[in-house]
Design brief:
By secondary structure, the chain is α+β, with helices and mostly antiparallel strands. It is built from six helices and five strands; from the N terminus they run αααβαββαββα. A five-stranded antiparallel β-sheet has the order 1-2-3-5-4. The longest helix is centred in the N-terminal third of the chain and has 15 residues, at 59-73.
Length: 223
Amino acid sequence: MGYETQPRDSRGRWTKRSGALVASTTLAITVAYGPAGVTGVTGVSGGSGVASMQSSLSQVVRTKLAKGKRSAAKGHRNTTWKRLDLERIDEKFDRAGGCALHSYGQVQRFLTRTPCHSLRRMLFLLGDGHGNRIVVSVSWVRMRGTAAARELRGLADVDGTGNITPLPGAIVGAQPIRWTGRYYDSRRSGSLVVIAETEPVRGNPHPGFLDGVADVAAELPRP
């Protein structure tokens, strides 16, 4: 499955797994992961109005995610991962010369017509010390005005329209990443659009936790 076929729900929004599909999963609170019945790259999708995957997490883990979002918003990356019981194995930063070159689909066509001001991307490889590893992609797109940023985010969040291309997994020592779009979040602040995605690369991390990490990562300020 390529980037352009990332799954969404019937309203064109990024797919969120129904809480009922993972409610029977037991979460290991002490490591913020649990043995899920499926991994984050299986083809289970929900319809419109489904509950967030995060609803299946324990209150302890949801509290950790909330604290992680506060740390991320302050730009404290290492503290953010520690709050989530994750350790940074590697990270890479890229300051791209143009957005159209590093995007695909309708998003690329939009950025060709409406050039961005700047693009910065990061890729994190994180582990929990118990065999689980995940990658987190964050892209910061600075447009030349608020209206263009609003249009970009609206376009990127809709099914089949393409997006900013994440950095390749090989640069952090990970295998080629199949970005499903299941664990995704975005935000806009003025002319800045932030896009975050998460995927598992080893082990069996809880889908709700992966979804939560994407929400946290989207809060990170532009480096």
